[in-house]
User: Fold Solute carrier family 15 member 1 from Xiphophorus maculatus.
Amino acid sequence: MKSLCNKSLLPRLPTGQKDSLVTIFGYPLSIFFIVVNEFCERFSYYGMRAVLVLYFKYFLKWDDDFSTTIYHTFVALCYLSPILGAIIADSWLGKFKTIVYLSIVYTAGQVIMAVGAINDITDGNKDGTPDNMTFHIALSMVGLLLIALGTGGIKPCVAAFGGDQFNEDQEKQRSTFFSIFYLSINAGSLLSTIITPILRAQKCGIHTQQQCYPLAFGVPAALMVVSLIVFIVGSGMYNKTAPSGNIMVKVCKCIFFAIMNRFHNRSSQIPKREHWLDWAEEKYDKLLIAQVKMVLKVLFLYIPLPMFWALFDQQGSRWTLQATTMDGNFGLMVIQPDQMQTVNPILILIMVPVMDFIIYPLISKCKLNFTPLRKITVGMFLAGLAFVAAALVQLQIDATLPDFPSSTEQQAKFINMVNRSIDITAGKYAFQLQTLQGNEEYYTYNLPFDLTIDSGPTETIRLPGGTRNTIVIVEEAGRMTNIKVGIKVRSKSKSNHIFFNGFGMTLNITVGEEGFGNIVSKNMSTYVDVPQGTAEFVIKNAAGSTCAFKREFGFGSSYTFIIPPTFILEENCEEHIKEVEDIKANSIHMAWQIPQYFLMTSGEVVFSVTGLEFSYSQAPSNMKAVLQAGWLLTVAVGNIIVLIVAEAATLPDQWAEYVLFAALLVLVCIIFAIMAYFYTYIDPVQIEADFANLEPEDEKKKNLEMTKKDMVENHDEKKRRSSNEGKIVQTNF
Assistant:
């Protein structure tokens, strides 16, 4: 049987490349290591990013706005660092060493993130809050900074390095490689966005059982280690091209020289040139200048594009936070809020062939000139509609949410644990509570307020601002008193908070694998997160008597379970337990997010795919990487826009912020449409060919004629000027 691996089947490589690369079916074996490396790296990045905003909110205890700010700052850094990676690879280290070194940095960042999420390393409190929050925040920020540098730095190198493995006679194989390469990106993204939220939802910990962010970050860290090892293992098979200078640096130098040369000659009598870049002709050849002109023409069109990414990347922040206030029960499966992000890659796999084989051909048959720039305009408009849909969903959610207090307010609910009805005056509110009864609504106060029970002494109640609290009324030695229970709920939770109040006896209570611990007489437990679904409670007393019962919970609810002094452990003990609903379960289904994801994904397919295709077709052959860097820069700027708008707008309602972003994008969309109307499509290949066909002698003759013409014009101008007007500045050509 003929061996599949035959290095003699590989065509000769250009000078300087290896000619002994092992191939399989005509493909370099080395690309296998590169594809596996990319799959693991994308799994690592998107897996970590999928749970990141929830980590900020529920582990680091940041509010929605600050969580969104840090999330988009991180994404912006991820898309700024590719420029640095490209410069390092092309100018100094080469692609292979750049990928290896920055992957080590990347791996270290992922490991630090996983370690920083371990609550037990600082002896967490019973409520799951770390003792030393500064320590966890510091580790998290260092980890994110290293990840941003690593993932962005290798981004422009890996695909290009894969292309370097093919010789000039393998165009078909190279094209197939890029298809497989991008498939591995989407596969890694899709699988990680499904898996890491499941890992995050698990319970882990030594001192306390809580959501397992160390596992959710640890698995991506392990995949990054695998990615690095696989890439290094293939080292001996790679074709490693030496760094040959960075074209981006050359372009920047050309632009800088043209600006400075024009500035220095602003008062001279040298005739004006057709284009400001022509002032670089003294140092750079005309072909390079013409290529830079083509690049700048496209980059000018990029100016409005960051607004699209400002909306698109909020799928991982605002839209994920929106999902935490929704019901994820789809019957056969329960979807976690961060798993809704998988809708985007799934729809991409569906929408790309639909657009290519159905929508675009139908538009073509209708004789409509659907140019690339018009497609980009439509994509931006669809993204704006997606945020209008998100705003409509948010309005429906807001109608079901409780009225949370501001930072200068406090809310309180009162529960009567006395064996008779009591009269309560709390601030401006006066009401009567029956035994084992709690008032249905929270009362809102400006800090502080006075509390009077049954005409007894008045007590001033001081509670933390911006919190919702349960105040339990008990009787001790014939005197009415209260026990303040700080809930500190500032927003809708993704899970159910259960709180047991044990009175008259010491009880040990567990729910599933979570333990409330021993609740002594007239004392309260801490809140415990209970996942959506059926929860089984087990109550034991010191004598070993046990009672078990089950309870069904929805998403985002919060309950207080009251155990009365007359409680007896018996078969139907749950009948004696008083249940008080503090926050209703989420009632708006997550399926309502699908329309906004559909509109956003449709916009992405039309916008992103077309934008890359347009940039490629309008870029010079040696400057496609420059436009790639410019495209990635628009993503970074888009995330910076989110930070600016979110901080500057300070809108009280989330739906209003969605509408604001939609309005801004529509405005930018109109501006882009006007810019696109005046754009003239070019053929870079033809322009470069025209310059290549220009004979050197003709070039010299043309330059000589221009010089003579300049000298004559300068001489005539000099004669017309008076002698005290100064000398004409001479420029060397």
Summary: The chain is about 50% helix and 15% strand. The domain at 492-585 is CATH 2.60.34.20 (Substrate Binding Domain Of DNAk; Chain A, domain 1).
